[in-house]
Write a structure and sequence with these properties.
Blueprint lengths: L13 E8 L4 E3 L21 E3 L8 E3 L4 E9 L2
Parallel strand pairs: 2-3
Antiparallel strand pairs: 1-5, 3-4
């Protein structure tokens, strides 16, 4: 695996930032989508907040904007 060589603590351990991500209401995304669709196109409502790969069992989430919040700094050796 490759890691950032500059992301080390004072003892030389590598670090990674683990974030919590707010996904909100998700819809299945498509490659052509550039903006989040509305939750109900005929009503003036908020857009979806994230795209997923599969609605039933999502494994990939795509979010826009500032929806990631730093939670932990993990120190490790490879």
């Amino acid at each position: 695996m490759h890691y950032c060589d500059h992301c080390c603590d004072a003892q030389g351990h590598k670090m990674i930032l683990l974030c919590l991500v707010e996904c909100g209401l998700s819809c299945v995304g498509e490659e052509r989508m550039r903006i989040m669709p509305k939750t109900h196109p005929e009503r003036r409502q908020l857009p979806y907040m994230s795209y997923v790969d599969y609605a039933a069992n999502p494994e990939i989430f795509v979010v826009e904007g500032q929806q990631a919040y730093p939670a932990y700094i993990i120190h490790f050796d490879d």
